[in-house]
Recover the amino acids of this structure.
């Protein structure tokens, strides 16, 4: 069973992008592609690693000072399900911005327990804790 949840967090102050900077390792594990359709920004991901992905968190932070929104998309695969190596899927969508945001992978966990990303968003922290709590 796959559970994908999209969430919008409204931040009252400008978010420092350096606080959300992702580790360079994730770019070799999951490739992101974004495209706009019907007022929504669609995010597609492709597992470019040789191992199944069992969890991911993708963040789109603001670049422009007038844009204070941070969008978070995450997925957690259960019951032996995963994003298989080489496979692609739609990770979710959010409201299209007037100016392009800063899209990055905040957290990825592979089936063998390997992780990448700084896991600084609340979603990434919550998902990574699920694996360490058991």
């Amino acid at each position: 069973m796959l559970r994908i949840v999209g969430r919008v967090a409204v931040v009252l102050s400008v978010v420092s992008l350096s606080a959300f900077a992702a580790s360079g390792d994730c770019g070799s594990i999951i490739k992101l592609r974004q495209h706009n359709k019907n007022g929504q920004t669609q995010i597609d991901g492709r597992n470019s690693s040789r191992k199944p992905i069992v969890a991911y968190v993708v963040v789109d932070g603001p670049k422009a000072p007038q844009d204070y929104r941070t969008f978070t998309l995450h997925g957690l695969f259960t019951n032996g399900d995963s994003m298989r190596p080489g496979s692609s899927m739609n990770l979710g969508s959010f409201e299209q911005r007037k100016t392009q945001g800063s899209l990055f992978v905040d957290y990825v966990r592979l089936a063998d327990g390997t992780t990448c990303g700084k896991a600084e968003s609340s979603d990434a922290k919550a998902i990574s804790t699920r694996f360490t709590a058991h």
Summary: The two ends are 19 Å apart (CA to CA). Helices lie at 122-132. Confidence is low (pLDDT under 50) at residues 1-24. The first strand starts at residue 2 and ends at 10.
